[in-house]
Amino acid sequence: MSATGEFDEAELQELQQLPLVVASIISAVDYSTISESKEFDAFAAFLEKAGAKRRKSAFVAEILDEVVDADHDAFQKRCTAVSSAMSGEKPVETALKQIKDVGLKLDKRLDKKDARAYKDFIVDVALAVARAHKESGLPFASPISKVEDFHIRRIQQALGL
């Protein structure tokens, strides 16, 4: 049985959607609509290139085979949901809970190597999006904003890394 056989259809969909969830959260947390286009392009390019990089793990390869393309409308919709959330809504916290749940399922159902490969892939998505647009015009500024870095660390923690 393949590693994806450890998951039901709904769980597989969640695994396939997680890169989009992570990319849109990282893009939206700095509330910069200027950078969203560059960040989406970086996300789409990363998914395309990631296929070759992540083929080392059969599990990640299977998931990537099912991730069709980066969906700009879904990305934009999630970014808008984060940036326009009312005080009672917590889209970032909801996404982090989803990420944590996925991380726990991976640890429970897969061997450590496959679980780690998928988790690293998700963190790489976040880093690719965060690095797409330098948030400051200063020449020696970090390519990742402090708020993006904070949320990348939260994603890593949610994944159990």
Structural class by sheet pairing and helices: mainly alpha
| Total tally of structural domains | 1
Q: What's the number of helices?
A: 7
Order of helices and strands: HHHHHHH
Average pLDDT figure: 79
The share of residues in helices is over 70%
What would you say this structure looks like, in words?
Helix 1 (9-28) crosses helix 2 (33-53). The chain has one domain (8-159). It is 71% helix and 0% strand. The chain is globular, with a radius of gyration of 15 Å. It is built from 7 helices and no strands. The mean pLDDT is 79. The protein is mainly α and 161 residues long.
Topology (SSEs and partners):
Blueprint: H1 9-28, H2 33-53, H3 58-66, H4 72-83, H5 91-109, H6 112-130, H7 146-159
In brief:
By secondary structure, the chain is mostly helical. It is built from seven helices and no strands.
